[in-house]
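User: Hi! Is it possible to get a structure for several chains at once, not just one? Here's what I have:
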Amino acid sequence: MRATEANGGDARTGTAEPAVDVAGLRVTIQGSVVLQGVDLTVPRGEVTALLGRNGVGKTTTLRALIGLQAGSGNVRILGHATRGWPVHKIIRLGIGYVPEDRDVFAKLTVAENLRIAQTAQTTTANYDRVYALFPELKVRHRQLAGTLSGGQQQMLAIGRVLLTERALLLVDEPTKGLSPKFVSEVVDALERVRQTTTILIVEQNVHVVRRLAQHVVVLDHGTVAHTGDASELEDENLVRRLLGVAR
Amino acid sequence: MSTFVAITISGLALGAMYFLVASGLSLIYGLMEVLNFAHGVFLTLGAYAGWAAAQYLPQQGWTFIVTALAATVAGAAVAAVTELLLIRPLYGKPVSQILVTIGLDLALVGLLLGGFGSDSRAIAVPAWLTAVTTIGSEHIPNGDWLSLGLGLAVLGLLTWFLRYTRYGIIIRAGAENRDMVSALGIDVGRAFTLVFAIGGAAAGLAGLLNSVVFSSALVDPTQGDQLLIFAFIVVVIGGLGSITGSAIAALLVGLVQVYVTFYANGGGLAQLGNMSVVLVLAIVLLVRPRGLLGRTT
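Assistant: Yes, the chains can be modeled jointly so their relative placement is included. Here is the combined structure:
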């Protein structure tokens, strides 16, 4: 049942249900309307980038998808209407969430950070895969996560969701604040992961988006302002108009 | 000098019992930030469960293990039910949590008073527990050794559990970032119930220990509330959420209380030992407000 849904498909019609299908997602935080009816579709097996200026609701969208942020609207993830579900139940559909601030457990070692992710899923943990993507995690497995550099923490945050098979990754600004060396390593890893996993990524770096994503969704003032193909980001005028930045 | 050794062991034993009470309180606050004012009645119910079990058991040495198990299981069960029914709907509402746990404490103590009366009940204890062990010229009550042994065993078990087991790692992670634990697909609610049960188990055991070693083998409906004050003092001195801090603070409080009671109580101030503990609390709060090993926020 789950495998069929995870692979996405309706064999009778030949159409693949999107990994994420959101309609009219509204979120209010402390009286302020942050999302005012977001409609969003993430096709299976591809990478969709969620773009927009600071504060338009990109992170809130990801958090609302997995129930970390309360909201209203219709949300279907991997074939399930998940509204009202607890966070852990949504995640157990086969979702990996990499938050904006990494949120590694600072007082736990690297090995413990990975182990806690392993215990959450029923599938077999694949440490070899994680250590192949990020060899540094193996070297530092006894180090407290709070003492890692920002880049190493990002590797750990991504590594722990890749420990078990995921049908969908939600990745929030994976290159934020990283040095070019770490940006390259993280993007290389995500490039390899996308071959087997659907990804919805929030990213400010247009170069990274162009390298990873097939689709882009641009948020503005809590709604979807533009949906299109990632190749459109070649158009510098469009990028400046939508994001307010030069490519 | 030999008297000093004897009262030091007595102070450490008292501290070990305080640790049993405080460890659950600290664990519960450390993960869930719940100030559980019903913790004292978990302790009392544990003592009564031990008393009830002892009524039906033959008075042989080994039966005390069953009595202790009854106290531990009773404490764990009541704590788990409390978390499931009363605390779970109130996460993120600290004032409501405090009011509910105070109300639960009052209600359960009232039930105990109604059911068993205000008179203390004598609990049957095995002979070895009331005997003494002679070391050199000193006679150390076996109850002190029992308290020390249980304190060390619980500290060891909790440390092992938190460091090496799956749920231990989840609990430590949850203390840092509850949302992220959920976002890894872990049912944090189940971990919360487990933590409450562990805290209740330690409290139940402490209740029995307090009765058989430090209260002349008497069980009393209000014994838990009296000890809860010391447990809170221990938790604050040790640092909220730190089990090791609680262990150190418990020994400190036990030693100070016993030393002052023994050496400085000649003037007839019966409460001087208790007052000295409050003084230690005041000094720690002034010098190191987060406690000995409390985390910075």
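Chain A touches chain B at residues 66, 68, 86-88, 91-92, 95, 97, 99, 103, 105-108, 112-113, 115-117, 119-121, 160-161 (CB under 8 Å). The CA atoms of residues 135 and 154 of chain A lie 13 Å apart.

User: Great, thank you!
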